[in-house]
């Protein structure tokens, strides 16, 4: 019999949840699909230098298209045994636009731990959406038997530090060489 780590641990669901931000805007959140690369490319184009710096630890310039698309495909089409991701979508000009992503990746050496990362488009930050997306990721992690979620961020990234501190679970935190590691204990 397969163990949970060998099986398709983070199999993508087909449904979505609709939430309302603090400003009253409607956002739909669902699992990322392998066909979502174009949405991720568009999201990247709309991130400010500061948001890129916080998410990728360097103020990434506009990348050449081939590199950007390769990375977007990799972020959308991944191994479900090791990763899971939710995408947040808002209706703009009659179509769905990506306004945020949260993901977790299992630790290679410790199947009880996953590293997570989150990014929201600048114009959707500070409306409570980060809190809702982290809540969803925590629910998924709990259901899938993850015991620890690790977030690594720049030491000056107050937003993510506050978001994690408020998640409702015990958090262990330490900072070294300009990076902060926060571990959410789920058990
Ligand atoms: C960090 C991030 C995900 C937070 O999401 P968000 O939707 O803006 O957060 P919320 O609105 O749910 O706020 C959660 C808490 O954090 C606080 N917060 C959010 N952004 C903040 C900021 N820039 N500075 C200080 N506090 C901040 C909020 O005030 C709130 O606390 P409160 O309820 O006590 O007021 C979002 O700002 C973001 O995408 N940042 C850029 C990418 C990034 O930093 N990723 C993390 C590294 S992987």
UniProtKB/TrEMBL annotation:
Molecular functions (GO terms): acyltransferase activity, transferring groups other than amino-acyl groups
Pfam families xref list: Acetyltransf_3 (PF13302)
Protein name (Swiss-Prot/TrEMBL): GCN5-related N-acetyltransferase
Keywords: Acyltransferase, Transferase
Lineage, top ranks: Bacteria, Bacillati, Chloroflexota, Chloroflexia, Chloroflexales
Residue ranges of every copy of the N-acetyltransferase domain listed in the record: 27-187
């Amino acid at each position: 019999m397969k163990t949970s780590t060998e099986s398709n641990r983070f199999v993508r669901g087909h449904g979505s949840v609709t939430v309302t931000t603090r400003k009253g805007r409607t956002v739909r959140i669902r699992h990322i699909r392998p066909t979502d690369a174009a949405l991720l490319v568009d999201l990247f184009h709309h991130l400010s230098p500061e948001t890129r710096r916080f998410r990728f630890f360097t103020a990434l310039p506009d990348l050449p298209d081939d590199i950007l698309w390769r990375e977007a495909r990799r972020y959308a089409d991944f191994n479900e045994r090791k990763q899971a991701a939710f995408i947040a979508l808002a209706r703009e000009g009659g179509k769905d636009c990506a306004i945020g992503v949260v993901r977790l990746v299992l630790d290679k050496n410790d199947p009880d731990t996953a590293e997570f990362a989150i990014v929201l488009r600048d114009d959707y930050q500070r409306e409570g959406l980060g809190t809702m997306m982290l809540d969803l990721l925590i629910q998924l992690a709990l259901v899938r038997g993850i015991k620890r979620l690790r977030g690594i961020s720049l030491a000056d990234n107050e937003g993510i530090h506050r978001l994690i501190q408020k998640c409702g679970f015990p958090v262990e935190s330490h900072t070294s060489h300009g990076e902060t590691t926060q571990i959410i204990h789920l058990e």
